[in-house]
Specification:
alpha+beta, 18 helices
Amino acid sequence: MANIDSGKLKCLEEIKSQGEFVRKLQLASATKEEIDAELAKLVELTTKLKSEDVRPQKLSLKNPKGTRDFDPQQMAIRERVFAKIIACFKRHGAETIDTPVFELKEVLTGKYGEDSKLIYDLADQGGEILSLRYDLTVPFARYLAMNKVVNIKRFQIAKVYRRDNPSIARGRYREFYQCDFDIAGLYDPMFPDAECVRIVTEILQDLDLGAFTIKVNHRQILDGIFEACGVPKEKFRSICSSVDKLDKSAWEEVKLEMTREKGLDPTIADLIGTYVLQSGGLELVETLLADAKMQKIKSAREGMEAMKLFLHYCDLLGVKDHVSFDLSLARGLDYYTGVIYEAVLEGYSEFEVDGSSDITGVGSIAGGGRYDNLVGMFDAKGKKVPCVGISIGIERIFAILEAKAVASQIKVRTTETQVYVASAQKNLLDERLKLCRELWDAKLKVETSYKKNPKMLDQLQYCEEKAIPLAIIIGESELQKGVVTLKNVATREQREVPRSQLVDVIQLTNSQ
């Protein structure tokens, strides 16, 4: 009752009291006229309460937990990042698709291991049981199976939803974009997998985020380690999920989870630790190939040979220096079957997010791997389509770039306007509109004031605020001579340009 205002509370008490009085009259066999009169009062009180209910209530203006708005400067940064990522995807021959933001719940169920609890279920509307998509990979696999697609190189940029514990400072949200690139089809081993690493490398270099490392591992190697150490097969995925936490937690904490929460023998856990705490390159693969326990496991040997070939291709593609063969990398999602990878930035374990002293970490900024069995889960005959792909953690990249923009105090331009049409005198609105039409017809990006008689100072200040490079100034004398004054807003230099040459001059000036 704490949230009910005093007027409404008083009305409720009056209704209760009047209702009891009517019941007493009925029990006392009062006359019909007396009962009807008191009933009328009760109806009047009820009507009054309803009118109280429909009165406007104070609205709480805030974003839902784990979501945010983006102002024009933030959106300008985002658009430029997206443009660079899309350019890279297209450079590698990808085409794009789109899928619904929600899927049948059964499509998503059982694909994400322990993370399945983070799926957003939609309320039953008396029809299909639906959930918001958790990632873009499972919907892509459903798309391939449903449309009988067996070969495609695709990218998709879209929002996904996770009922996770959000951390705005770290760029972790409940609603966020994913930028995915995937190669589907049966090809010779490891070249598509290595190309994905090349793509991540190109994107991170284009965005100028600093030094980075792409950790790689192989599910067959990881499962081989579990088997060699004596982990029961039914615990593989559960223990894999624990190993996946080594990038955030110390080994002792991970070991405790394995033994106490998941019932693994402490001796087996210690054996796992001797393997998963190692990282390196080709020399580590050779060490594992010489390991007596690992040699006995066929799938592990296959995984190690595949990793040798993968690292060879990474060398040929010029990305070997960014790659680290890291046995702690597990990627907890159930659908991975081969190479897995995760990109992390170096030197960004700490950074200021909003100019405050709140220092936070960023974590992984890209991840992915091979998932050869996922499409077969949706095909009636179990037909498999081998796939490999990567996903760029775009929100975390945005968090870094936004922080850098705040720290630099450099104004981010939010429009692409090339030229502003200004008037130096009154009653020239018609002439400004004619000039705008002429420039728009030439496909130039043009603005003018929406006021009929704007002040000259206000017009030029607007150009400076929006970083518009050029201003066209017209007055009576310019109209009589058939010219305009073209002003460089930054340098304040200006010159007369004949109207017939104006479009060519603007295009030339903007190209310089």
